Amino acid sequence: MSSSGFPNSPHGDTSHTAVALPSGDALFDRVPPHDDEAEMAVLGGMLMSKDAIGEVSQLIDVSDFYQPKHQTIYEAIIALFSTSQPVDAVLVANQLLKDGNLDKVGGTDYLHSLVASVPTAANATYYAEIVHQRAILRNVITAGTKIAQLGYSAEGSQAEDIVNLAQSEVYEMSVGKVRQDYSAIGPVVHDALDQLDKLQNGDLQRGVPTGFRDMDDVTQGLQPGQMVVVAGRPAMGKSTLGVDFARSAALHHHMATVIFSLEMSKTELAQRIISAETNIPLVALRRADDITPERWNTLNRFWSTLDESPLFIDDSPNMSLMEIRAKCRRLKQTNDLKLVVIDYLQLMSSGKRVESRQQEVSEFSRALKLLAKELNLPVVALSQLNRGPEMRNDRKPMLADLRESGSIEQDADVVLLVHRPDFYDKEDRPGEADIIMAKHRNGPTDTFHLAFLGATSKFKDMPQDYQQDGV
């Protein structure tokens, strides 16, 4: 039997055959749209992953479930989650037992079967969307049936009243689902002028400082809601620049920052940060004999300043987009998160089957832009470039060189391309780097000339009086 109650019918199919209806479905002359398997998969994902609970609870409400036992299980999961308790099949069973509902939902065996029904929690949001869509269809049918009943039962003189009631019924169906995000132009313009006034008076706080003089002048810092893409060929220094942004924000301006490192381990990342902050060469941190008593003193002083620094590092393997979003939301609530750095885009996984890798990366790109807007902070996404620069004589990267580029290029507010001429020719401007701002949605593009200090894993401003050859 399929979830709709008819053999071999697709999920959520509504047959045209009238059937005996469960209580509460008197308005329907057939089985209402629903998908039992999707409901089970949502609950199974929630029992497997706390991150899935955070994601799903933003997409659906308890009333979106068709089966009463699924509503009861959902409420028990949310009750545990909202009090920051761990959630799994055993703990939810205890909660249901305490509420006197365990036998009503099929006992502990049914809860374990929910977990067994899904191979991974990564698809929980996909199934939640199916559940939500079926709930919308049920609401449409309910409203339509009520309106039809009003029309049949009314007298001719009541026609206008019935139209009003019908409009009210449709409005009630949608009112809880639509947020009033629109604003009249007057207050919006007033806010924009007020912001300009504060900017002139020096009262307006800049965005997240990058730590680089010229870059901060052009961008006014990394702005909330922006997706900033830092791209480069392998070993060009894009990870170093991303860490430089994080160091500037968290260690020098005390702004909560998280680095999701899908390439380097926490230890490797920590060594780079230590080297950049203390000027002790990276190679020395990997050889005990090179750490002199003087360097130990430097390291101890650095450690004491780090104690309160709000920098978080996550190197979880095979990190999915759902996990990243859930962790960012949690850090926003608990630590007022100001900056997210993801290293790097092409290493993220969705856990879903997709038609192409390009489509999957495009989904990541769009989702990260939406995350930046939702949490009102800049998201710095590092990205690979294809081999395009190596095919050109000057080896300079271009916007079109972004790997799986279409959506990344479109979604990004700022694109920074890392180019080091001495990577290809040791005699060509050794120790210098060009950070090419190939896209800047809210301002001019520019090229920033920085020093690259590979030994201590960081970029640095050139002296004020620096002039590039030929300039």
From TrEMBL:
Reactions catalysed according to its record: ATP + H2O = ADP + phosphate + H(+)
Any one Gene Ontology molecular-function term assigned to this protein's record: ATP binding
UniProt cross-references to Gene3D superfamilies, sorted A to Z: DNAb Helicase, Chain A (1.10.860.10), P-loop containing nucleotide triphosphate hydrolases (3.40.50.300)
The SF4 helicase domain, residue ranges: 201-466
GO cellular component term of the entry, any: primosome complex
PROSITE patterns membership: SF4_HELICASE
GO BP term (any one): DNA replication, synthesis of primer
CDD domains: DnaB_C (cd00984)
EC numbers on record: 5.6.2.3
Top-rank EC class of the record's enzyme: isomerase
Keyword Hydrolase appears in the UniProt entry: yes
Family: Belongs to the helicase family. DnaB subfamily.
Name of this chain's protein: Replicative DNA helicase
